[in-house]
Amino acid sequence: MLRSFLIYLSKAVWAQKLVTGWGFAWRFASRFIAGTKLDDAMRAVRELNGKGINVTLDHLGEHTNTPEEAQQATDDIFATLDAIGADSSACANVSIKLTQIGLGLDENLCARNLERIIARAKTNNTFIRVDIEDTPYTDKTINIYSQMRQKGYQNVGMAVQAYLFRAEADTRRLLEDRTPIRLVKGAYLEPPDKAFARKTDVDANYDLLTKLLIDASLANGSKESSDGRVPPIPAIATHDEKRIAFAKGYADKVGLPKEGMEFQMLYGIRRDLQEGLAKEGYPVRVYVPFGTHWYPYFMRRLAERPANIWFFISNFFKG
After folding, report:
1. Fold of the domain spanning 46-302
2. What are the pLDDT digits (tens) for 280-308?
3. Is 177 assigned a catalytic role?
């Protein structure tokens, strides 16, 4: 119930205006967000790279309302890609949401913007991860992504949400062209006819999809690029230590080298686990969001971690 309410609030304009007006809200949100400017994000890249950890940068934004807003979001992504390209030592790539660049307005507009972004990433020797959003956009997202692959772009991958019933079919479809996949559990509110409600079912599906990704990586000789910018096929994106242990155990069982699989985690969460996996020799990538449109992302992080909610509320009453 509480999780559902927080996810509702993540999309509520009135709540966004209220919460972003509280000074302490940003102070707390900054635990999970690198900052509001590109310089802040690149500073986080350098800090994490210094610990042997790669980065995915996300200039926050989603659900643009006009073509001009979609163009501005595209320009912001260009700036992020250019910053990575200008720093040859930066072990980083970029994640985007298609509603950020116009999916909710015009699919053709979105496809044009995405192609321009992927081409810009290519000139900057880096990679684009197309993130996955709630199910009204799933088919459209995968279809536009597939258009890019059909045009020959290889420096682009997708994300899959394990709590969806359709996740296995989507994963198998995407693996037909060796798509690098970021496997997440899922952070949106979905109806009972589209997603598993019980954690045990989500976990079981996550492990099944992990096996599919590891098998695909082994069969195709997939591995992380030497500069840390292009990931292998499996990106196991979780802070759940049982899921991580399962992935490690299955990879060892089938003989997948460590560089054939990547673990991904969120900025500001479980730094100990991030650094521990990196010390074990596994590729680790931290998802680093930044920008002024931090509210929806922040609310979804609250929904995922109840302990954060009570910390947030206690700060509210402290003023």
Report:
1. TIM Barrel (3.20.20)
2. 999 999 999 998 887 777 777 776 665 56
3. no
